[in-house]
Amino acid sequence: MELQTIRALIALNTAFYRKNAQGFAATRSNPWPGWERIASLLNDSLAAGRAASILDLACGTMRFERFLTHALPDRRLSFYAVDNCLALATGDEPPAQTTFYDVDILGTLAGSAPKAPGAATPNALDALPSCDFSCCFGFMHHVPGWELRASVMRFLVEHTRPGGLIALSFWQFMNDERLAHKASQAEQAAREHPENLTFAVDALEEGDHLLGWQETGTFRYCHHFTEEEIDALVAMLPVGMSRELARYSNDGKGRKLNRYVVLQRL
């Protein structure tokens, strides 16, 4: 995918969330069922009584922070939450010991996307510490292009301490008939009014889609992940840096909307 298209899609989603932050947050208050297993795996990986530091890349409304605080009440947790939509992140009171970083994650990483594995991480994200657990939920589908997705995954692994865990979710929304229909409607509307976009719909890659939001006339860019794509992303991580611990589906009515991958830093 060309860098110009990547930047246009990043800008599209940034504008979408800033415009619809209040309405979107109102529908995103409950924890995901798939997080229960994440909490269990994290708890099992830590020594008894040990505190844990959590890096949440693209934290959104910080509902994962609130979920984990309640799921692991006997743990002393410190959170490092990263997002570029302040309206989403500050809508509700975050848990204690939460440090928020207002960073354009993809805008920052996009400059390093063509670099080889192991290349230096941009300065805007270098301030983030290495943590016991790094996660990225509900975000990978907003990352345009293979190189940038690989950069996000590599960043998470690099910012996890040896022995720590990394968890990601990959949205498989085209498996849901209702969401697939919504994507078809949004893409038809976008083709009928290309003047409203800063990119060509034909520039989207296989698996890329547009989704609308509550009759607002605004679009967001989303990518549907196949199992083969997830396999390839995990395989491109530097050899000897991590190993896969778990992969499972959960969330949504059929418990199949999100595909979770849990890695361990070596």
Word description of this protein:
By secondary structure, the chain is an alpha/beta fold. The strands form two sheets. The protein has a seven-stranded mixed β-sheet. The chain has a two-stranded antiparallel ribbon with strand order 6-7. It is globular. About 4% of the residues have low confidence.
Question: Nutshell version of this structure?
Answer:
The protein has 9 helices and 9 strands. The chain is of the alpha/beta class and 266 residues long. It has a 7-stranded mixed β-sheet with strand order 3-2-1-4-5-9-8.
The rounded distance between the terminal residues' Cα atoms is 31 Å
Order of helices and strands: HHEHEHEHHEHEHEEHEE
Average predicted local confidence, pLDDT: 92
Structural class: alpha/beta
Uncertain runs: 112-122
Radius of gyration: 18 Å
Strands, count: 9
Question: How can the largest sheet be summarized?
Answer: 7 strands, mixed
* Shape verdict: globular
Assembly status: single chain
- The percent range for strand residues is 15-25%
Instruction: Order the strands across the largest sheet as they lie in space.
Output: 3-2-1-4-5-9-8
